[in-house]
Amino acid sequence: MSLRGKVAVVTGSTSGIGLGIARALAREGADIVLNGFGAPDAIDDLQRSLSKSCDIRVAYSDADMSKPPAISQMIDRATHELGAVDILVNNAGIQFTAPVRDFPPEKWEAILAINLSAAFYATKAVLPSMLTSDWGRIINIASTHGLVASAEKAAYVAAKHGVIGFTKVVALETAKSGVTCNAICPGWVLTPLVEKQIADRAKGEKISTEDAKVELLAEKQPSQEFATPEQLGALAVFLCSDAAAQMRGAALPVDGGWLAQ
Ligand code: NAD
C-alpha cells in the first residue's frame, strides 16, 4: 500500500506515540504535518530528516491543542501548504494523577481540552474536505483508560472514555462515505508521558526506576512488556489501508492483554 499523495496531520508528533505514527505514515509516502512542543532545533532536524529519508513534504505546526482557534489555523495552514488533509491522527495528550478530592481544576480543564476537545475541533475542521473527496481516515489515540478506569486518573479516564464515544459518533455520521473513524487503545507504552509516572512511582516507593517499570507492568499488562510506538504506527498504517475500509467506530486495544483480564 502507498499513501503517496495523501496529507496526514498527526497532533502531538514531536515525541512518543505520535512520532512513531508520523514516521510510519511517512514511510508509506504520506506528506506529514508534525505538531507538538519541543526544542526548535530538534524539531527542525526531525522535519528535515523525515522529509529526506522518506522523500516527502513535512510541515510543522506549533499549535497548542488546548486552544480551538489554533487548531483550525493549523488545519487551514496544512491545507494551504500541503493540500487538503486526508488523514488526521488525534494523538496529543497529557496526564496528571491525583485523587479526585485533590485534583486541581486547572489540570482537569487542560486534560479535557487537550485529550478530548482537541479531537472534536480538529475533526470538525477536516471533515468537510474529506467528505467532498469521499476519502479520509480519522484515527483517535484513546487508551485502555478509554474502556476501563484506574484510580487517581479522573480527568484522563473521563477524557479517554469521551474520545471513544466521540469516535463512534463520527463513525456513524460518516458510515456511508469513504471516511472512517476509529480509536486505538494503547496499554503501557514507554514514552515521556509514562516515564514520568515511573519516576514518580520510584520516588514514592523508594525503589529503582527498573523496579518501578516492572511493578507498573505487573499491575496491568499481562505480557509484562511495553507496547511500542512502532507497533502503533503499523496499526495506524493498516487503518489507512483499503483492508480497513469497513472498520468503523472500533476501539482497538494494543495492550499486552490488559483488557482481557
Ligand atoms: P508524549 O508525552 O511522549 O507525547 C505527547 C505529545 O503531545 C508531544 O509531542 C507533546 O509535545 C504533545 N503535546 C502535549 N501537549 C500539547 C498541546 N497542548 N498542544 C500540542 N501538542 C501537545 O506522550 P505519549 O505517551 O506519546 O502520548 C501520546 C498519546 O497517547 C496521548 O494521547 C496519550 O494519552 C496516549 N496514550 C499513551 C500511553 C502510554 O503508555 N504512553 C497509553 C495510552 C494512551
Total individual domains: 2
What is the count of DSSP helices, taking H or I runs of 4+ residues?
Answer: 8
Bound molecules: nicotinamide-adenine-dinucleotide
| Secondary-structure element order, N to C | EHEHEHEHEHEHHHE
Query: What are the low-pLDDT stretches, counting only 5+ consecutive residues below 50?
Result: none
Structural class: alpha/beta
Distance between the termini: 35 Å
So, the CATH homologous superfamily of the largest domain? Answer: NAD(P)-binding Rossmann-like Domain
What is the strand content? 5-15%
Strand order of the largest sheet: 3-2-1-4-5-6-7
Your description of this structure?
By secondary structure, the chain is α/β, with parallel strands linked by helices. It folds into 2 domains: 7-187 and 228-254, NAD(P)-binding Rossmann-like Domain (Rossmann fold); 189-226, no CATH class. The chain has 8 helices and 7 strands, in the order E-H-E-H-E-H-E-H-E-H-E-H-H-H-E. The chain has helices spanning 16-27, 40-54, 68-81, 105-133, 154-173, 192-205, 209-220, 229-239; strands at residues 7-10, 31-35, 58-61, 87-90, 136-141, 179-186, 251-254. A 7-stranded parallel sheet has the order 3-2-1-4-5-6-7, with helices on both faces. Strand 2 (31-35), helix 2 (40-54) and strand 3 (58-61) form a beta-alpha-beta unit. The model has no long low-confidence stretch (mean pLDDT 98). The structure holds nicotinamide-adenine-dinucleotide. Nicotinamide-adenine-dinucleotide is lined by residues 12-18, 35-38, 64-66, 91-94, 114-115, 141, 143, 186, 188-189, 191-194.
